[in-house]
Amino acid sequence: MSYLNIQEPLSTNHEHYGVVSWQSPSNIALIKYWGKRPIQLPENASISFTLSEAITKTKVKYRNRSSLSEWVQFSFEGKKEETFAARIIKYLDSIKSYLPWIEQMAFEIESENSFPHSSGIASSASSMSALALCLCDIEQTIYPTQIDADIIRKKASYLSRLGSGSAARSVYPGLVAWGASSHIKGSSDEFAIPVSSQHSLFNEFHDDVLIVSAAQKSVSSSAGHALMDTNIFANTRYTQADRHMELLLQSMQTGDLETFGKIVEDEAMTLHALMMCSNPSYILMEPNTIAVIKLIRNYRKETNLPIFFTLDAGPNVHILYPDSIAQEAASFIEKQLLPLAHNGQIIKDRVGPGPIKLN
């Protein structure tokens, strides 16, 4: 794991301080990972679209730590958040073997999202990847070495994964894979890699997120992953995910939208089926989730237009379609789907360029 480039602890003779800022996007998984093993390693490979508009901006002020009680202050959207701060402290403590110098620094971390925290968009993916990118940036400032940018990004993906599995994918643009797969050269359970072999039409795919419910999920994703340990369908699921990965990659290389859409929708339904047959079981779909799915399927059957859906571990619906039908999709969504949204709320997004360092 030479890409981790672990440095020695800081010399006490030098003062270090500064500010770094990164914005990092969320992502939407096309092939889902559901089930993991220690430490934050996936039971099956996943692949996702990195989004454009759903982002977290994180600013980290750092300086030499003067006391043991001084380490992390955290604010979210301008307010002190002790609960989030505790999670950040736990995360930093978990990665100090890879970044030994962080114990010698004090951090003031400010974070904000471009989307509501309970919108069904993976905020942990964008927030943890933004923080990991900031930490890697600080390390390069403290230890200025000639390291290839790809190696730094790989380390950021590795560290992001330790905070949130899906965050490993958010450090790259476009189509991104995480998890060792025989179908993707260079793939790994430890970090994500970009995938660039898809047809050009997928570079401008839309993802409109229809907010069916703004309530917090009744079960966390972490708890859901843990329930796969005793799910009797777990091994069958992992076999299915591997086959789906193969078929999805083939369809994306050739531009086969019909196969692409079928696989993506099957993955969403499988994810929720696994939740419903866990022990204990739980249902995260709402009645309007099912109504939206039916309307999308009926519209596609009537018009033969390639508009599809996927779901994360929640009730809100991600509506996927190519840019070539953006006008027709917008009309359909406004007339038929928006009435089913919570307060008419929809977040319009698309495949994006990945993280950006801010001034």
Explain what this protein looks like in three dimensions:
With 359 residues, the chain is α+β, with helices and mostly antiparallel strands. The chain has two domains: 2-197, 2-Layer Sandwich (Ribosomal Protein S5, domain 2); 201-350, 2-Layer Sandwich (Alpha-Beta Plaits), CATH 3.30.70. It is built from eight helices and 14 strands. Strands 1, 4, 5, 6, 7, 8, 9 and 14 form an eight-stranded mixed sheet that branches. It has a four-stranded antiparallel sheet with strand order 11-12-10-13. A two-stranded antiparallel sheet has the order 2-3. Helix 2 (123-142) packs across helix 3 (149-163) and helix 5 (234-254) runs antiparallel to helix 6. The radius of gyration is 21 Å and the shape is globular. The two termini are 31 Å apart.
Question: What's the short version?
Answer:
This protein has 359 residues and is an alpha+beta fold. The protein has helices spanning 82-95, 123-142, 149-163, 221-227, 234-254, 257-276, 287-303, 326-337, and strands at residues 17-31, 36-37, 41-42, 46-64, 72-76, 79-80, 105-113, 175-178, 192-194, 206-210, 308-311, 317-321, 346-350, 356-358.
